[in-house]
From TrEMBL:
Transmembrane feature ranges: 13-33
Annotated organism of origin: Shewanella fidelis
UniProt name for this protein: Type IV pilus modification protein PilV
InterPro entries found in the cross-reference section: N_methyl_site (IPR012902), Pilus_4_PilV (IPR013362)
Key words of the record: Membrane, Transmembrane, Transmembrane helix
Residues forming coiled coils: none
Pfam families referenced in this protein's UniProt entry, alphabetically: N_methyl
PROSITE patterns reported for this sequence: PROKAR_NTER_METHYL
Length: 185
């Protein structure tokens, strides 16, 4: 008597599982690459926003334009007078107080102090940011923001022909850089 067996053999099932696992590993790796790229893009968008923010602050305090020049890495202490312009605010600040407040708030934005996780760790800013401002009396302004990326690539500022840009931040194969040249009149 010859039996006609119907169904899958154990070898066929194992081969199908191996093919499925290889496909799932590929999908998982694609997901990881996508998340890294999304995070790098978010960091660059943040740097752009932060650079534009300080430029707008400088426009509002044009009298002390050159005083904004310097290197900033989140080390400024909070000024005694908060010069935020808010609805119903009754604070009148001098230009020097405004300068100190602008730089402090700007550094806090770079560090992401407005967004903290459940462990009170700042999560909304750039990773180890350094910002450099070169403001000249004629209104020429260069703002450079560097931060640490998550992937090793080439140094984001080392190849720049402007020594001011390439000198901002710590040289590294993870350094990213965003720079803006503008004129404030």
């Amino acid at each position: 008597m010859i039996a006609n067996e119907k169904g899958f053999s154990l070898i066929e099932v194992l081969v199908a599982l191996v093919i499925l696992v290889i496909g799932l590993i590929g999908v998982f790796n694609l997901h990881l690459v996508s998340k890294r790229g999304s995070f790098e893009s978010f960091q660059q968008t943040q740097a752009s926003y932060i650079a534009q923010d300080i430029i707008n602050r400088m426009k509002l305090n044009r009298g002390l334009l050159t005083a904004y020049s310097g290197t900033y890495a989140g080390n400024l202490s909070k000024p005694a007078t908060a010069c935020d312009v808010a609805v119903g605010a009754n604070v009148v600040c001098t230009v020097n107080q405004t300068l100190a407040w602008d730089l402090y708030k700007w550094e806090q934005q770079m560090l992401g102090s407005a967004e903290v996780n459940s462990d009170s760790v700042k999560v909304g800013g750039l990773d180890t940011p350094t910002a450099c401002i070169r403001a000249q009396a004629n209104g020429n302004v260069t703002v450079v923001i560097t931060w640490r990326g998550i992937r090793k690539v080439s140094d984001g500022a080392a190849s720049n022909s402007d020594a001011f840009v390439s000198g901002c931040g710590t040289a590294s194969d993870r350094r990213r850089a965003y720079s803006v040249n503008t004129v404030i009149i």
